[in-house]
Amino acid sequence: MEIKELTRAEEQIMQVLWQLGKGFVKEVIDQLPEPKPAYNTVSTIIRILETKGFIGHNAFGKSHEYYPLITREQYQNFATDKLLNGYFDNSVKRMFSFFVQKEKIDLKEADEIMQLIEKLKDK
């Protein structure tokens, strides 16, 4: 199945469902920051996510309990690949340099990354 890009609102709903594991619309709304969106807004976004193949549901009478069909890791891989290919010519070095230059990575994080690289070299 091809993963599609999520809008900001869709991603926010998915983050909640990934955290909860499953939930009804009201439970999703309870996890969203203030000001809370309207029930109908969240319900509509959830139906769109279902159409896109991101979530499924179990019916309990007229109520539906929703659950993710795509894992957070699957979407993370998709989003990272898109970022890497679209903005850094598929070069991890360019992406890393960008984050270092923008001071998005501090020395401690850079040291941890270097340790990870050393572990990969040992394999």
Automatic annotation (TrEMBL):
Listed Gene3D superfamilies: Penicillinase repressor domain (1.10.4040.10), Winged helix-like DNA-binding domain superfamily/Winged helix DNA-binding domain (1.10.10.10)
Taxonomy, superkingdom: Bacteria
Keyword Transcription: yes
Residues spanning the membrane: none
A single GO molecular function term of this UniProt record: DNA binding
Keywords, comma-separated and alphabetical: DNA-binding, Transcription, Transcription regulation
GO BP annotations listed: negative regulation of DNA-templated transcription
InterPro entries: BlaI_family (IPR005650), WH-like_DNA-bd_sf (IPR036388), WH_DNA-bd_sf (IPR036390)
RNA-binding among keywords: no
UniProt family annotation: Belongs to the BlaI transcriptional regulatory family.
Protein name: Putative transcriptional regulator
Provenance organism: Mucilaginibacter yixingensis
